[in-house]
Amino acid sequence: MKLPFERPLIKKIEAGIPSKFGMKPTLKPIDNIDGVPVSDLIEKYGSPLYVLSEQTIRETYREAKQAFETRYPKVQFAWSYKTNYLNAVCKIFHQEGSWAEVVSGMEYDKALQNGVKGSQIIFNGPSKSREDLVKAIDNDSLIHIDHFDELFLVLELAQTSAKKPKVAIRVNMDTGIYPKWDRFGFNYENGEAWEALNRIMLSGKLELVGLHTHIGTYIMTPDAYRVAATKLADLAYNVERKFKHNVRYIDMGGGFASKNTLKGAYHTGIDTSPTFEEYAEAISGALISSNLNPDQLPVLILETGRALIDDAGYILGTVIANKRLSDGRRSLIVDVGVNLLFTSFWYEHEIYPAKGETQFTEDTTIYGPLCMNIDVIRAAIDFPVLKQGDQFVIKRVGAYNTTQWMQFIHNRPAIVLIDENGESHIVREHETLDTLLENERLPEHLK
Amino acid sequence: MELRKNLAISDTGFVFDAATGESFSLNPIGLEILNYLKNGLKDEEIRQKVLDKYDVDESTFDLVYFDFIRTLQHFDLFEKS
Ligand SMILES: Cc1ncc(COP(=O)(O)O)c(C=O)c1O
Q1: Which of B24, B30, B55 is closest, CB to CB, to A8?
Q2: Which of A257, A279, A310 represents a domain boundary (last residue)?
């Protein structure tokens, strides 16, 4: 019997790095997703492949919900469609009780098709068309007004509409964090938000149902939410006092950090990202200690996106080649590129081999398969030396990747959902050349 | 190609380069091959030894051996010819 072969490796020992074999933690492979072997999934559905865990989605949602419901009496989540609008994903969130939060006519229609009641769709975003608004008014949806031009348009539509539009305003503000997002909504500090509220109330044509803010994304400081909730509560209180009108809800938007690690961060996201409890404590603390009438506390709406879905998503892939760069660094070329992993522009994604425990790793650059220089999945990762055909798993890719992916050079791969019984289901088919050609038209003279 | 004389190779897989003060670590098979090189074995002899002893096909071995030698070159572990 011959001995098992491992490729010969040599590695320079850098000062300050533990220098003995065995001192470094072993990189544990990820060989299954919810009990389904990675190799089986790739064999059945091809590589690369997105995999979603229904169990993780539900568990994460319940964890977030509990964090808030144990601190505040009325909580409502609204699933942020742009974060991942695969129907299967939306339906899971809706089953769990989430409303829908949409930012375009396309997303709005998708939410309706998914069976969400019009009155449970929050319509955000700076770009609603007149037709979108007419439809939203008609369906009693919650229109979050972004700017004065939109406010005037809604007022105009209210003249001829049989229904009284239900509106909220989006408020931007200084919460002490950088960057300050002042591009969307009405500013708090300069009085614009208060002016918009006055116009709405004095018009008599709109029903002011709520106040909204979305202070940014991947916010690492829960205290920013405390500041934001305090300012919205303040506006709500002023409306209450001046117009004897209680807003039904305060919507704190999204922005909770997921457990991914931001590029350039010294510590990993697992160690540094706040928990749902910490965000919940900051927000509910601010609302409960505000001047708002405790008998008429508004519903707290949350449009949490990435923190609810990142962990449930994986990309499985395969090594195409191993290559040494001119400066001696090792590089891996894999079949997952930035076309499928948009978030690799922000995150140092965790990547694991699908099998073979090893302590021997090398500083490696991982490239995708595209013919462009920016197609880098990880610029520098301490990674085992995989060979052609070896499989790997990229973790925490559930947010924004299957909405912002590009059909560039390669067809987009299938997306599979593993249900709570460990059964896998295709939730989006692998694209084919026909997918690409479906919308192409050839002028007569070129046929 | 000849391995540099002033390399100290430990039997636990460490190489110390007295000329530069740098040290390296190897996995067991890397250590085995480095020792063959130190003892002056030719590429073909090393190849045969590994193929006899380990469960590996020729083309896989050639590929990884070539890469290993390139890495040794990159770390400047051969005598300048
Ligand atoms: C209005 C609004 N709500 C919610 C979200 C979801 O944000 P996140 O994924 O950071 O939680 C976004 C994201 O851009 C947004 O613009």
Answers
A1: B30
A2: A310
Residues B29 and B54 sit within 8 Å (Cβ to Cβ):
yes
Is the same domain home to A233 and A333? no
DSSP secondary structure letters along A279-314: HHHHHHHHHHTSSS-GGGPPEEEE---HHHHGGGEE
- Residue keyed to tokens 């070329």: A333
Partner residue opposite A324 with nearest CB, options B52, B60, B67: B67
Q: What is the distance in A from the centroid of ligand 1 to the CA of A305? A: 6
Decide which of A310, A326, A360 is a domain's last residue: A310
Domain extent at residue A355? 32-52+312-435
- Could you identify the atom of ligand 1 that is nearest to the CA of residue A170? 1
CB contact under 8 A, B27 and A9: yes
Query: ipTM score of the complex?
Result: 0.94
pTM over 0.90: no
Q: Is it the case that residue A293 has pLDDT exceeding 50?
A: yes
Our CA-based measurement puts residue B13 at a distance from the nearest CA of chain A, in whole angstroms, of 9
Name which residue sits closest to atom 10 of ligand 1, judged by CA. A255
Collapsed DSSP state (helix, strand, coil) of residue A99: strand
Within-domain flag for B1: no
Q: What is the pLDDT along chain B (81 residues), one digit of tens a residue?
A: 788 888 888 888 888 888 888 888 898 999 999 999 999 999 999 999 999 999 999 988 988 898 899 889 888 899 876
